[in-house]
Amino acid sequence: SCVHPDRPEPLDLHLGMFLPTLLNQATPEQMERFFTPAWNLRIIGTYAQTEMGHGTHLRGLETTATFDPSTQEFVLHSPTISSIKWWPGGLGKTSNHAIVLAQLHTQGRCHGLHAFIVPIRDMDTHVPLPGVVVGDIGPKFGFSEVDNGFLKLEHVRIPLDNMLMKFAKVEPDGTYVKPPSAKLTYGMVFIRSMIVGQSALALAKSCTIAIRYSAVRHQSELRPGEPEPQILNYQTQQHKLFPVLAAAYAFTFVGQYMKDTYRRISGDIHAGDYSQLPELHALSAGLKAFTTWAANAAIEVCRMSCGGHGYSRSSALPDIYVEFTPTCTYEGENTVMMLQTASRYLVKSYRQASVGQRLQGSVSYLSEAAAQRLRPRPVSGGAAPLSTQDLLSLVHLYQRRAASLVELAAKSIQQELQRGRSQEEAWNHSSIDLVRASDAHCHFVVVKLFVDKLEQVDDAAVKAVLSTLALLYALKGLADNSGDFLQAGLLTVPQATRVSARIKELLEELRPDAVALVDAFDLNDRKLNSVLGRYDGNVYEHLYEWARQSPLNATEVHESFHKYLKPLRSRL
Ligand SMILES: CCCCCCCCCCCCCC(=O)SCCNC(=O)CCNC(=O)[C@H](O)C(C)(C)COP(=O)(O)OP(=O)(O)OC[C@H]1O[C@@H](n2cnc3c(N)ncnc32)[C@H](O)[C@@H]1OP(=O)(O)O
Ligand SMILES: Cc1cc2nc3c(=O)[nH]c(=O)nc-3n(C[C@H](O)[C@H](O)[C@H](O)COP(=O)(O)OP(=O)(O)OC[C@H]3O[C@@H](n4cnc5c(N)ncnc54)[C@H](O)[C@@H]3O)c2cc1C
């Protein structure tokens, strides 16, 4: 499995997508021919799917692979400017091969997107091969260590055996043999599953830095005449950071669950059982979007909670943000992923449950909700009593919110259809509700997994503090999304007031354990790479040392004085 590197590197795609794609989609002969040299870095590959004109819409990708039976070759071609492969990591200058996703044409028919191994640079000289135009796409928001590149193919010929043929095949006479399931060629589920763990790591690093720094930073005055307090004693600072701490623990458990689920279901798939692939796709797509959006926002909260020094690269928080934020875009743009989970899974499951089907997996609650709808509603109809202490009742509340939002989205589609809109228009005019339904479903999954995890904790003291974190995560989510719960009749205004009061109590309860809880992530100083987050808390001396090392301080008088300031002065 992939251990996520701390910083983006040119080999990330080789290790994170080229090798796993071979493992998932190459025949044994192709494994022999490509995997071994790739493992030894003779072959260095990338995953070239996105084009200048299309990243999300896979069916719209334009690169073609046309089979020529007379030479037993595929001709790979970029027919338009928008078809130029654009963004693949390590493509610009590092890779000598690429797995190219192209529309397969054989015997005059197009069979959709398939994967082809295309040599792009000479194995010895590293010079681009004939017909290959390749380079770097230029400076980006971050990822400056990675040569994200472009690739233009001009009628490049590759052997028949360079098409990854574990599932789909092309016979020597050009006959196309369908894969057992069209969904097997999508891929990407592996990295999406791994990204959930990356969200947890980014949160753990950010809140470790911010909470440790908040324990050593003294500022302002709480009680007149007393010494300046630790900023971690301010309620607002706790309100910023402790929910991030709780989310870091929550996402750590979800990341473990996602990895285990990926392993389990991909094992079934290798054994020929594809039945769980829809659940895996929906779960990985939804949780990738949910956790990256949440982590992306939380990193910025941590940076700003460190004041000016948070903005210094010495804090590491700017780099953590810059390296993390593209996870909301790559490997499936988050909105699109949320729509996938809603449209391809939740609404489909809702409709199955509405006709009495017993659902399994993460949507089994929709069967319960469907049965509930058939039972007469209690006269009171009001919200059930709310316990701000009982985690299981909070899990149930999140479950009912998710069921309510899935029903709202499904009904919106129905209403749009009744207005005479087409299927596609009805879905598009319900897509805000669809995203909300996915968000609520993922939020329920995260809360449930957090509470489930507590059952596995034996140590009473650890279980107590983790339960406090789980309570904070659930109640803060309830407060942040109170509109959903109020709209669904799951919360009353007095209950919402009690939730806010309970959150304040939990912040106070967590204060004594906050530093120990980030120390428990066991992120050493080298991995954190942060002056503010140092384990020894010796921030100011090392901040001063860090500044003095800055290249600008190599000379007392910088050359710019003589080159610019002095001449400018003499002209004034
Ligand atoms: C040590 C090293 C570590 C390195 C770390 C790594 C660093 C990484 C750095 C950066 C790396 C960044 C690298 C990169 O960024 S790589 C490029 C990433 N690009 C994408 O993710 C593209 C996103 N777009 C899509 O996936 C498709 O276009 C979607 C899905 C949106 C629509 O698609 P389409 O319009 O064709 O189809 P449909 O919606 O009608 O759905 C049709 C059916 O297919 C099922 N379906 C759909 N998708 C999947 C799936 N995936 N597995 C299984 N099933 C799937 C679906 O449920 C439905 O089923 P049913 O309802 O008919 O039953
Ligand atoms: C740092 C980085 C590394 C990358 N590495 C790779 C790589 O190694 N290999 C590779 O192949 N690609 C890579 N990519 C490309 C990445 O996968 C795409 O950028 C991503 O899939 C999004 O596609 P897009 O850029 O076309 O955005 P678009 O899909 O054009 O998104 C733009 C907007 O349109 C909206 N939108 C699009 N479709 C829909 C829809 N159906 N419904 C509602 N809204 C929609 C989106 O929500 C978004 O708001 C990388 C990108 C980045 C930033």
Automatic annotation (TrEMBL):
Residues 6-44 form the Acyl-coenzyme A oxidase N-terminal domain. The keyword Oxidoreductase applies. Residues 393-568 form the Acyl-CoA oxidase C-terminal domain. One of its GO terms (biological process) is very long-chain fatty acid metabolic process. Its cofactor is FAD. Pfam families: ACOX (PF01756), ACOX_C_alpha1 (PF22924), Acyl-CoA_ox_N (PF14749). Residues 187-346 form the Acyl-CoA oxidase C-alpha1 domain. It is found in: Peroxisome. The active site is at E331. The keyword Cytoplasm does not apply. Pathway: Lipid metabolism; peroxisomal fatty acid beta-oxidation. Its main location: other. InterPro entries: ACOX_C_alpha1, Acyl-CoA_ox_N, Acyl-CoA_Oxase/DH_mid-dom_sf, Acyl-CoA_oxidase, Acyl-CoA_oxidase_C, AcylCo_DH-like_C, AcylCoA_DH/ox_N_sf, AcylCoA_DH/oxidase_NM_dom_sf. Keywords: FAD, Fatty acid metabolism, Flavoprotein, Lipid metabolism, Oxidoreductase, Peroxisome. GO terms for molecular function: acyl-CoA oxidase activity; FAD binding; fatty acid binding. GO terms for cellular component: peroxisome. FAD binds at T50, G89. Belongs to the acyl-CoA oxidase family. This is Acyl-coenzyme A oxidase.
